Amino acid sequence: MSMVKSPTGVGTAARAVGATKRYGRADSAVRALDDVSVEFPSGVFTAIMGPSGSGKSTLLHCLAGLDTLTSGQVFIGDTDVSSLSDGDLTLLRRNRLGFIFQTYNLVPTLTAEENIVLPLRLGGRKADHEWLAQVVSAVGLADRLHHTPAELSGGQQQRVAAARALITRPEIVFADEPTGALDSRSSAELLRFLRHAVDAYGQTIVMVTHDAVAASYADRVLFLRDGQVVSEMTEPTADRILDAMKGLGE
Ligand SMILES: Nc1ncnc2c1ncn2[C@@H]1O[C@H](COP(=O)(O)OP(=O)(O)OP(=O)(O)O)[C@@H](O)[C@H]1O
Question: How far apart are CA 57 and CA 155, in angstroms?
């Protein structure tokens, strides 16, 4: 099988259909997601933006099987995530998805390389050395592989987390505020790596961010307000994103 997928992408990597998430009861209920139907095409880098409380994290978590919907469905490829048992959800997350969170969640006692290949070990799979070398080189970590997280900067730790998210060649990488704890230089390094993964390997990425500059690395930006997708922008620039956010009352 070729390692290079079409950068333009074909098909739908994930989608939500009438996705609704309510918290609390009747009169005090919050609709964190309100009947959201949206598709995430394969090989495309999508950013999700919106004011605080608009439902960004809820959408990401429900798509990734980390949280459950009140009604509606989410699909990863053709798999209806909402119908899976807990065990099958764990397998789906481990084998088909990659995650990058704001806090890097590295195992402190393992080296960078051991952290990167951990998802393979957990899945009982062997590291493909060529692929590992490619990911490590693209993320600029070749000289840090034998350091533990405490010996790495925040930016380096997040790049280890990003390499770990890609090592299984997941169908989708979900990133929740991945640059939230990074300075602008480290953010740019991480975002260039994510962009490269899309352009060179056809990786699909869905990223929640508050940062217009971060979102401008995406191919497409979805804007949420009050639990609904209210607009979408292609070929985004930071200035156009900021204007759109002002229109949403940010
Ligand atoms: N566990 C919960 N219990 C009750 N309400 C919740 C819970 N999680 C989220 N909410 C509410 O759901 C709505 C959407 O929250 P969510 O975290 O998805 O928004 P967000 O756009 O990611 O916000 P932020 O940008 O501040 O992270 C908010 O009104 C929030 O208060």
Answer: 22
Q: Nearest 5°: CA angle at 209, between 205 and 213?
A: 95
Q: Whose CA is nearest to atom 24 of ligand 1?
A: 52
How much is the ipTM here?
0.96
Q: Of all atoms in ligand 1, which is nearest to the CA of residue 21? A: 12
Instruction: Give nearest CA residue, ligand 1 atom 5.
Output: 23
Rounded CA separation 174/48 (Å)? 11
Task: Per-residue pLDDT tens, the chain, 250 aa: give them.
Answer: 333 344 444 699 999 999 999 998 877 888 999 999 999 999 999 999 999 999 999 999 999 999 999 999 999 999 999 899 999 999 999 999 999 998 889 999 999 999 999 999 888 888 888 889 989 988 888 899 999 999 999 999 999 999 999 999 999 999 999 999 899 999 999 999 999 999 999 999 999 999 999 999 999 999 999 999 999 999 999 999 999 999 887 7
Q: Whose CA is nearest to atom 16 of ligand 1?
A: 55
Domain boundaries, the chain: 43-55+91-247
DSSP, residue by residue, 54-123: SSHHHHHHHHTTSS--SEEEEEETTEEGGG--HHHHHHHHHHHEEEE-SS----TTS-HHHHHHHHHHHT
- CATH architecture of structural domain 43-55+91-247: 3-Layer(aba) Sandwich (3.40)
Residue 130: Cβ within 10 Å count = 9
